[in-house]
Amino acid sequence: MKAKKKLKGAEDFGVKIKREKSLDKFSKKVLFPEKLKEANKIISHLKWD
Amino acid sequence: MVFVKYNEDEFAIFASLIYLFFCFKASYFPKNSFARSVVGRAKKIFTMKYEKYDSLLISPDGCQFTFVSEGPKGRILKMVQYTETDNPDIYNLAFGELLANGNINDSVKNNNKDRNKILATVAVTVYEFTARQPEKIVFFTGSSSERTRLYRMALTNNISELSLDFEIFGAILEGKSFIIEKFMKGKDYNAFAIKRKIV
């Protein structure tokens, strides 16, 4: 079976990326509630052309 | 040297094209060879097309990123978050300033004179997020019409490169619905959605 090509990520742009466990505390928190509300408003009325 | 008659811009375009279209790796060629030096330079120029912050922190779930903006206002910690929307296939992209108390300042102006560098860094997080979760759609809109226009311009200016890796859509208000279609230059979209092309 042909292996899937690895998709381009941050390191392909010369950007170092480091896993930071302390950011986990934000995972269950919506940091931008107004933006999410606006997104959901639009998404609920989306019609794919 | 073959390229001496070209100026830097012409060389950058040419080098980016060979790098993009042939996806050469410098390691294909013998050390100290001319071809290796050209490909190495092409990669460097392509990846440096837009200045960006070169260090990102990522949460274990791959949905939060932080980086430090540097400018006349000092060092400002930026947070980028991808949040699942009411449609679990679509994640909303938002970013802003992370304050010391853990709150977010998502006001439009940051005044650190690095707007484009921030946008380029956020774009890198889109690559990273979608490399990890390629089946998800990333949705974003501006917090003002000016900001949405800025995002439209950024997409328009980079459409040929972005289209290599993403399907790009624009949503436009028609009546009470938002019609979402393949992104077209010059259309005044209200929001955008992008999906990774899976090869």
The two chains with the largest interface, and their residue counts, are: A-B, 38 and 55 residues
The residue-averaged pLDDT of chain B reads 85
N→C terminal distance of chain A: 35 Å
Low-confidence stretches of chain A are none
Considering DSSP H and I runs of 4 or more, what fraction of the residues of chain B is helical? 25-40%
Straight-line distance between termini of chain B: 37 Å
Q: Strand count, sense and closure of the main sheet of chain A?
A: none
Order of helices and strands of chain A, N to C?
EHE
Mean pLDDT of chain A: 90
Morphology call of chain A = flat
Assembly type of the chains comes to heterodimer
Walk me through what this model shows.
The complex is a heterodimer of chains A (49) and B (199). With 49 residues, chain A is of the alpha+beta class. Chain A is 22% helix and 14% strand. Chain A has one helix at residues 33-43, and strands at 16-19, 46-48. Chain B has helices at 8-22, 34-47, 115-132, 145-157, 159-165; strands at 55-58, 64-71, 74-84, 90-98, 104-105, 137-140, 166-174, 177-182, 191-196. Helices cover 34% and strands 30% of the residues of chain B. The relative contact order of chain B is 0.10. Chain B is α+β, with helices and mostly antiparallel strands. Among the domains of chain B are: 2-47, no CATH class; 82-92 and 115-196. The longest helix of chain B is centred in the middle third of the chain and has 18 residues, at 115-132. The model of chain B is unreliable at 1-6 (pLDDT under 50). In chain B, strands 1, 2, 3, 4, 5, 6, 7, 8 and 9 form a nine-stranded mixed sheet that branches. The interface between A and B is large, with 38 and 55 residues. Strand 1 of chain A pairs parallel with strand 1 of chain B, so a sheet runs across the interface.
